[in-house]
Batch of 2 targets.
Target 1
Amino acid sequence: MSLTKVTYSMINGAPANVLDFGAVGDGTTDDTTAIQAALNSGSKYIVFPSGTYKLTSSITIPQNIAVEFDTATIKGHFSDYLIKFAFAGESILRGKLTLTDDDASVVSAATTLTKGIEFGNTASAIHGVDTSGCDIYASKLLTAYYFGEFSYSNVFGVLRAFNCGNSTTSAVLFYAVGLIGPNDVYIQKLEITGSNTATWNGAGLLIQGGFGIGFGQLHIESIYNANGAQFFSCCIDIQSGYFESAGATSTSNTLYVNAGAKVAFNGSLINCPVTLNVRANFIGCRFFKSEIYARADYFGCQWPNANQLQLTLTGLQASDLPSFNGGSTALEFSRFSGNWSEYGQSYAGVVPDFDYFDPNHSMLTSGDTWNSNSLLVTKTATGTYFGAIGFKFNVRYVDAQVYAWAIVKIPSVDGVSEVRVGVGGALGSASFDIDSVSIVQDTLPDEWILVVLPLATVFTSATYSNQAYLIFEGTDEANGKKFLIDSYGVEAGGCTFKNIGTSFTPQSANYLKGTAAPTTGTWAVGQRMQQQTPVVGQPKGWSCTVAGTPGTWVSEGNL
């Protein structure tokens, strides 16, 4: 009597283990036929034990089965997807799976052939696929995940892609014919990252069309290609996200929203350029080194206090700027009236005349664009630092912590290479709060840039008569180099955009502090100068009775 070895997989209704069908999982043996046999066995539950399974062609997951991956790796080197789904889907994936093309010939995006998972296509749309219990990681693939048109009602767990795509493909693609694409899709977490090198230059995420696409988390970082994420679809909801600009060019990792798309960014950290061709919602987002976007609606968004927070203002009005940090109390505001000009010396030469540009000598304006009133600073002496200009703080701010901001521009013709803005007695001195320095570089010539400094302590400097300053300096050593200052301000409790570019209060415009009536600057009738250091027997202040430069000023009487 002959005996037949019976495995557990042969029992009706039992899980089918791919090893029982001849798969080896050693990373060398071709396991394609054995795995497909297990999938076609009729079992509703297929198990991949831990191991590396080599494929030489695609495997197809039948309808209405569950597949469990016990920390398994599937790899291959051929021009197709590693995994496909049969119509109409309704399958479940669980566990932890890695997909890769680790052939020795794959040394760059240009040499990879294989794709990851095809979740439906034109010929076989899928629905009801559930990978919510599966963590899938893909690397070195032409496309990591493809979501086919007409597919709908699919839920996905964690999908990761690293160094996927090439110069003409995206790591993740939601394909569409016109606007007909995947519908009612939800991904718990989609993470697309790269090594930020030209060797792996694939784009990140491309959603060509579809409706009702949601992401619990969307993470896109270090994509070398200029296209970090492109949205052409309607009704895209991002519940949380992280977008980090770390590419080869200034446009790297750009978020692009097409005119026909409808996208809501919720609770996202955004540190990359954003291109909006249609109105988009940003709800509870935090922006780092980013811009203000003309078609964006902001709800509870924040721009944290950090160095290098620089926002492009060109072409915008003050009313376009949303509030980013409430509780601000205006302390000082100065905006230049007319076209002022000053020639700055280096610190190695003559100390510039700080008093001349004290806020008391600058007239507040109510205009809300940044292109008519400015201070032109031109270098006339040699030296490492430009040492161009400083603005006195009121003595009551000494040793206090404040937030400072300024609006500056580097011209494209004869512009400095960078402008340093900081709080303290002098740049480079021991009395300077080095953590407050922000550097505006010439990467955006002829653009007005709003610079918001982090919280800084106002120190004094014995070199400058124990006075504290907001200092601007360029670092280009050639004489004749220039930069422009539009306005600046100092606040407590955080800066709010709604205050910038307009007078804070009537008192801000008409009630200034100084030690004498103005002798320079242009003034209007009714403006007042309060005595900054009151002394019995000396004037309490001065009022402008005739407008002019400096106009006619009359004492308000002695104390």
Note: The chain has a mean pLDDT of 74.
Target 2
Amino acid sequence: MNPYSPNDISLQESQPNERNEWRQDAHEEPSSLSARIWKFRFHYFLPLPAWLMLFAVSLPPLVLAFLIPFKDVKIHLGVAGSPWAGFEAFRTLFGDDIFRQALANTAAIKLSGALLAGLLGLGLALALHALPWRRLRGALLVLFLVPFFIPSAVLARTILDLLASESTFEQGAAAFTDPSLARLIVMAAALLKTSGIPVALALAAVAFGPANPDAGYARAVFVPALRAVGAFALVQLSGLFTADFDLIYAQAHALIIESLMTVDLYVFRWGFHMMNLSLAGAAWLVQFILHLPLLFAAYFLIRRYLSPSLFVDGRTDTPVRQVSPAWQTAGIAAVSAYALVVGFMLYRIFVRPFLLASEHAGAPGAWLHWPPVVAFLFVAVLTAIGSMVMTVLLAYPLTVRTLPGRGLYKLVLIIFLAAGPMMVPHFMYLRHFVNTLVPLVLLGLFNLAAVFVLKERFNQLYGDRKRLAERTGRGEAHAFVTLFLPAMWRPLVGLGVLQAASLWNSFLIPLIYLSSAEMHPPILLYLRTAFEGGAWGVPFSDPSNLQAAALISLPPVLLLLVFRRFLTADLFLGQSRNH
């Protein structure tokens, strides 16, 4: 048996006594603070490079974030040289009906998305679990996760193209001018993109549920699935006032932009279109203040009540609980219907464009040049590898429950996680690197949600072995090399895959920092072509442009297919917060 395998029965039996073992560990620790710090000195030196980099990238912008709203910021003067303006930005902000609508829109999108995706995911997970064919369950789960790896801009524009091409002119035009229909499109795209995550979480929780065959269906299947879906909903609600920027921006035309306004779009519009950096900074600060307690609450509730159902060993071959033939038939029908919906959207993105004849000769998308494609693919992969290193360095100290300063360590990480990418503060800090790839690399190095996912996974599955190593006098460096890295390298690769896909798919950071069209990544070129109605004399609806969108969407999907064994359900949890 693999010495690091979580299937070891000793680990499963030790989890109920975790708190007693923690108390025992605390009792066995040296009594003086200096002695305990010296004992765990490795945990203070190991993350030092990551902390220095995190502070260098994010601490000055966080300080600027608390100054910008109170100043009349001018780019050429910088924050320090701009005059003080008092609370004028906040008076303007709270008197702005559009901002209040942005708050309401964002909360409505996130609340409805968490509820609908959770309910749909729970239903699909229960239906999938009832299927007696294990390979089919796995294949359908991968199918349901594919939309998450497709760029949000491509997903939104594909739905718009579907409405425009399969309807009358008036109905197609309504997709671009009707605010109610635009909101429905956003909801449908968000639901399609995220619903696979609660399905994966619920299936994994059920597979790791009570192994006792006498346990009832509710205790063995429904309750673990419900707990996993509840954790997904909590993560979503921890970012209640942020939404998928790419998804909203991709269809926020001038005629309907106010009806689709979210807080992130408000900050971007006022900060980079209107150049009112103070008002944009005030909006961001309000968003941050609202998010911080929500994130703390979600972390506490998941850590306290739901964590054992989430961070599991990924078994999927648990015997299927017997259900009635009627329920099994209903489950097959539900799964088949949703699989048809997902399959049809994938057909529209990846197959249909290549079945249509283009009236314009040439390769797919006259605007799609391969050197920038290769360059940005390389940047995404390289930055994702750097993110993996930062995640390991920051996560390992959190595996010691009695580490002096552990609470402060987590507090600072959660504050930076709540801050996220700070649009205006980061721009004022990194504005001298406009039209370079430096901001893309620096802002992509840290996925702090992954730090908590990795440490929680290790503590749940390997915490007893870590405590045993501490009691037997083995050094912390020895445990890091012989236990943590061998146990966590597979989920770490999975986190790197998710980060690379996210960097490739997102266009927010390039939209802010890359004003030169020659440097735009493929997804931003695609979006610009969509907004302009075409490029190089080729209308956007031409199959060559749709073929280019398919090629842009292909690398993240290939990552899913190639590394699906590394992508356990819990790894998606942190990635779902901003969608």
Note: The chain is about 70% helix and 0% strand.
